Amino acid sequence: MAATTLAPRTTTGERWAVRRPGGGVTLARPGFAWALPATLFFAFFAIVPLVLVVVLSVTSWAGIGDVEYVGLANWRRLADDPVMIDSLWLSVLLTALGVAVQTPLSLLIGVWAAGQQRNRAVLSAIFFLPLLLSATAVSVLWRALLDPNFGVPGQARWLFGDGNLFGSRTGAIAVLVLVGSWQYIPFHSLIYQGAARAIPAVLYQAAEIDGAGRWHQFWHVTLPQLRNAMITSLVIMVVGGLTTFETVLILTQGGPGTDTTITAYYMYQQAFRSFDFGAGAAIALLLVVVATVISLIMVRVSGYDKMRSTLEGL
Fold this sequence. Notes:
- The chain is mostly helical.
- 63% of the residues lie in helices and 4% in strands.
- The N terminus is likely disordered.
């Protein structure tokens, strides 16, 4: 009896063409074994740590010694902690400011980089250089540049006053938004660049025939076609903004006072400075829940979960 063989893939979906002995071809999905390595990796490095965080959030542990079960005591204490409440609002504020600054700039730069302008490739490569640096390296670089004594503000006091941008809440927040935008705008521009290049040229040709100028083409053709890319970018911005940590640790250390103590940094303080790992785990779990809920709301409201290809004919 002839064995069943796998024919070359004949569709663009997830199914494989299976050639039967009689000559017929049927479609069959790949087995679970194909997804097993990724499933195990995700379970070991994501699910298991998350479960441990949930367990740790209802305990009291100083990092050594016995773990004591305390129930919801950590949660009740955090609910009455003014620093914790303020850190949540500050995280939301920094995230909102980051979205407001990064979205329009990355959109415009990404659309421009998708064109055929002269020297576009060279300028784009230079602009994307911050993507090669880690958040820690970027923070150290900007900390030196904005040093109140030896940095740019200290040498231009006619513009920056006393030169200490880290000495006030407004200045420190502005620095965090600036540094975050400088590093991550190239990444989001790359998303928009790829999406803009995928827009069918015939749409612009039709708009031009109808008398639409460049601005009208951007508003009525480009932006609608970038809708799915924009939702993707926004979700990444929101999750990244709520969980940012290295920038605050190196640039402001939560100061002045607690004026830039965002939730992720407060988690670090509770766990690794106060050695209250139970409270730190509770804060971490709260961050996961908040980021997940906001992401799901954005996906549902935007209709991203029902996303379909915007390419002509698909």
